[in-house]
Design goal:
heterodimer, A: mainly alpha, MetI-like fold, two-stranded parallel ribbon, 2 strands, about 80% helix, globular, B: alpha/beta, D-Maltodextrin-Binding Protein, domain 2, 2 domains, ten-stranded mixed sheet, about 45% helix, metal ion binding (chain B), Bacterial extracellular solute-binding protein, family 1 (chain B), Ferric-bd (chain B), signal (chain B)
Chain lengths: ~550, ~350
């Protein structure tokens, strides 16, 4: 072959090479075109399984639901969602703004410490809050002693506002994390521009900085909202009825998985509508801020303003992080004698291994999706990509079933095939392997990694793309040389979010884990399902501390 | 179709690398000693010691996984005839009934099980057997209630209990079974009236678990509640001075509502004999005593002594009716509680 080539004239070779590289480039572009649809195809399998439930409708259960609990469930869910949206955006955005632009006592500490609640599962904050503030908790008990009265005026924590507050404390870090990212890179300078245009600081924030940070803020709020809609742990601890509790009740209580799935598919539709609406609004905007601002001077706060900001940040941190940790610590001390053995190392190791692998895979896929979306910004591609993120709003157990059923079907098919050609009985091969778990996690958490990356990609301006292309940098090398350095911090953020979420995840882990392969979350499940909250403190604390590792890495990364 | 054809070319290479990955991740299945697989909604702490005892006695090892009942049943259905599972263990009769209804369980004829487990605590076709008895009874605050005031579950609907009752959520299967058995006894209309009465008498919204309901009664938030006895046992062990006591309701009528934690052999089990052996072992005196020690549940095997602690709670007449009805009427019970506004 080599000899043949040597006889051809050089110009022709270069011609051929050019031609083939063009072909390859075209092929790669085509591949990027198809990629989002492939991923959407995989991720949508469980969603399709959920929707397939409409093939076996049960009118009677539906009529029952509509005439009894459904109306109140819907209003409950609506109020809870609104509460969490308002709560997380107020806390998340304001804290992010304060810690990225102002100087106040303890700002250095708070700017990283406010990330920490990310590691605490919502259900843990919930059972700590209930244990502390409910009728039999220490707060009400001592108040009753002091006032020597029944204390019936004390607000019941097992109520809509109670749940909304707990979820706000659990989910605000999503908004904080993402909007801080926006403010750090563009906040201060935008504010200065606004002020130079004659706006006051306040006007500048509301009219310039906030609108410019919108993609980040909205991405954070979307994550919080989807978590809220999918949540089962927190609401069941509070016995607060939402759409999700109805899904579980029809499934477990009335043995109707199909009606449960139908309810779940409504949830997907709602989320889709929200996503599409949000995107329609966003389309009209173009964001192009690229440089990470050089070290900017913080605006110093003094007097009562400084005190108020420090007090505010301190309060949030206390309730979202310190209090749960302290209470868990006290319970764990009590339970230490029975609970702690070397198996905890194994649980923690399993949790970490799963989380790391899932974070790597999910972020890789999300980054490729984000890049594909950039290459092909047509409606179909965007829609396909949007579809890949809806899994996050599905209650975990429903998604777990949606993944398990097709997986088992595939598994049986594979075994049939092997048995046919070899005559050897194989049993199920895929199920009970880490592969299943990782695909399942990816399906669930693609949104968590995609949203931060997508917002970050908007920062890479078109002119950068064009300039790069002008230098002949395209395809993979563009990804490596241009995008990766610019997206590094967002990739890190995305990976941390997935890591922590997988640590906390229960239903998928329970259903797909291999034998003898328990994780910390599984341990918590098995203790809390018998109502032994205090004994669950030990695994919960271990889970939180393990989850803190990547968060602290993330913080150190973003500080330097 | 020859082997070389399958594993050649593009498709073949993809297939073989896919298989390779699958095998790399696959957990090795083969092992020397006989091994059975259990799917259990009974949590690890309350079942593993029994498996260990079983292995010690028979040499058969037990591999198990835990999850909620709904997930386990779905899983068994999806896995179909290749399921690795040999035995299903649940914490209530309703889900065993549902598993049997879906053809997931195999009828078992075992003289040992017949002898050890009372008839009303097993499936008539032998598809599942109750292993422990969970009595759902009334617990009251001894400072505020005299036992003479109490009588039946239905009586708790009486207006004299207004703002004095605490209940666990209707989403818990224990309450669903209780109401199902009431429907079997009293019919839908009367049961619905009673459940509505309970809701009217609530001192606070239904709570998420039995322990919390007990703590509410102890702290004076309400005066009476309905719980499974072992929750009472656990709480009193931690805090013996609480002003709580057990009352056995319905002694003149149906008896105390009982549910079971039980097990059945999976239809497609490939280790049927070993699976039956596990069930037989779990019904034996040795295992039944372990159940009592582990979680203060009542033994299903009537030949087994209750032990000092359970005896100290007094003797009672349990509901002699077949527990199968708890499964059959569970969905109706859920609907009824929805209608009655019992959250």
């Amino acid at each position: 072959m080599k000899n043949d080539f040597s006889s051809v004239n050089p110009a022709a070779i270069s011609d051929i090479q050019q031609h083939s590289s063009y072909e390859a480039g075209y092929g790669i572009r085509r591949a990027w075109r198809v990629f989002p649809f492939l991923v959407a195809g995989v991720v949508l399998v469980p969603v399709c399984v959920v929707f397939a439930s409409f093939l076996s409708p049960d009118d009677e259960i539906w009529q029952h639901l509509i005439s009894t609990t459904l109306p109140s469930l819907l209003t409950n869910t609506l109020w809870l969602s609104l509460g969490v949206i308002v709560g997380t955006s107020l806390l998340g955005v304001s804290l992010a703004w304060f810690t990225s632009v102002y100087r106040f006592p303890g700002y250095r500490f708070f700017s990283w410490a406010l990330f920490l609640p990310l590691a605490i599962p919502a259900y843990v904050i919930a059972f700590v809050a209930l244990g502390t503030f409910d009728y039999t908790g220490p707060v009400q008990t001592s108040l009753r002693h002091w006032f020597n009265s029944d204390l019936l005026w004390f607000p019941d924590i097992r109520s809509g506002p109670g749940v909304a507050i707990v979820m706000t404390l659990a989910f605000y870090p999503y908004v904080y994390l993402l909007s801080r990212d926006a403010f750090l890179t563009q906040g201060k300078r935008l504010l200065e521009v606004a002020q130079s245009l004659g706006f006051t600081r306040q006007q500048g924030f509301f009219r310039v900085v906030l609108p410019m940070a919108r993609p980040w803020i909205v991405a954070g709020i979307m994550l919080a909202l989807m978590e809220t809609l999918a949540d089962f742990g927190t609401v069941s601890i509070f016995n607060y009825d939402t759409f999700t509790t109805a899904i579980y009740k029809t499934w477990f209580g009335m043995f109707s998985l199909s009606t449960a799935s139908q309810l779940a598919s409504l949830l997907i539709l709602i989320v889709l509508v929200i996503i599409m609406t949000e995107q329609r609004f966003r389309l009209r905007m173009r964001f192009s801020e690229s440089r990470k601002s050089a070290r900017v001077e913080r605006i110093p706060l003094t007097g009562w303003q400084a005190m108020a900001v420090t007090g505010f940040a301190g309060t949030v941190l206390f309730f979202a992080f310190a209090l749960p940790i302290i209470q868990l610590g006290i319970w764990a001390m009590d339970a230490l004698t029975i609970g702690l053995d070397q198996r905890y190392l194994e649980f923690a190791w399993h949790s970490i291994l799963l989380s790391v692998l899932a974070a790597l895979i999910t972020c890789l896929v999300a980054a490729m999706l984000a890049y594909a979306a950039r290459l092909h910004s047509d409606g179909y591609t965007r829609f396909a990509i949007r579809l890949t993120t809806v899994g996050y709003a599905l209650p975990g157990a429903v998604l777990a079933v949606g993944i398990f059923i097709p997986m088992a079907w595939l598994d049986n098919l594979l075994s049939d095939w092997i048995e046919n050609i070899s005559g050897v009985e194989t049993g199920l091969l895929i199920q009970g392997t880490l592969t299943v778990m990782l695909v399942a996690y990816m399906t669930r958490f693609l949104a968590v990694s995609y949203f931060p990356l997508e917002s970050a990609l908007q920062r890479v301006t078109r002119s950068i793309d064009e300039a790069a292309a002008g230098f002949g940098v395209t395809g993979w090398s563009m990804l490596r040389m241009i995008y990766f350095p610019m997206l590094k911090s967002s990739l890190f953020t995305a990976a941390t979010l997935v890591f922590v979420d997988v640590m906390k995840e229960m239903p998928i882990t329970l259903m797909t884990r291999p034998f003898d392969w328990d994780t910390l979350a599984v341990r918590i499940f098995s203790l809390t399902s018998e109502g032994q909250w205090d004994q669950a403190a030990l695994p919960a604390l271990t889970l939180i501390l393990t989850g803190l590792i990547p968060i602290i890495l993330l913080i150190r990364h973003s500080e330097t | 179709m020859s082997r070389s054809f399958i594993f050649s070319g593009h498709v073949g290479r993809w297939c073989s690398s896919f298989l390779l990955i699958v095998f790399l991740f696959a957990v090795p299945i083969s092992s020397q000693a006989e091994e059975i697989v259990v799917y259990s909604s009974r949590i690890e702490q309350l079942i593993k010691p029994l498996f260990d005892a079983f292995t010690k006695e028979t040499g058969i090892t037990v591999k198990f996984t835990t999850d909620k009942e709904g997930a386990l049943l779905t899983r068994l259905l999806a896995e179909g005839k290749r399921t690795p599972a040999d035995v299903l263990i649940t914490t209530d009769a309703g889900n065993l009934w549902e598993a049997a209804r879906n053809g997931l369980l195999k009828p078992v004829t075992s003289p040992v099980l017949q002898a050890n487990i009372p008839e009303n605590l097993q499936d008539p076709q032998g598809q599942w057997f109750g292993l422990t008895v969970r009595a759902r009874t009334i617990v009251y605050n001894t400072r505020k209630v005299k036992p003479e005031e109490l009588s039946t579950y239905a009586d708790l609907a009486d207006p004299k209990w207004k703002h004095r009752l605490c209940l666990r959520t209707s989403k818990k299967v224990y309450n669903q079974s209780l109401v199902a058995m009431m429907i079997a006894e009293l019919g839908e209309t009367e049961t619905e009236r009673i459940v509505k009465g309970w809701v009217d008498n609530l001192a606070t919204d239904p709570v998420a678990d039995d322990t919390l309901a007990l703590e509410f009664v102890a702290a004076g938030r309400c005066d009476v509640t309905l719980v499974n006895t072992y929750y009472y046992g656990r709480l009193m062990r931690e805090n013996p001075t609480l002003p709580l006591a057990i009352f056995w309701p319905n002694q003149a009528t149906t008896g105390v509502h009982i549910n079971v934690s039980g097990a059945g052999v999976i239809q497609y089990s490939k280790h049927g004999a070993a699976a039956v052996r596990l069930l037989e072992f779990l019904s034996s005196e040795q295992a039944q005593k372990l159940f009592v020690e582990l979680n203060m549940e009542y033994p299903a095997n009537p030949k087994v002594e209750y032990g000092e602690l359970l005896n100290s709670w007094g003797s009672f007449k349990g509901d002699p009716r077949s527990i199968v009805q708890a499964g059959e009427l569970q969905a109706d019970a859920v609907r009824l509680m929805d209608r009655a506004g019992y959250r």
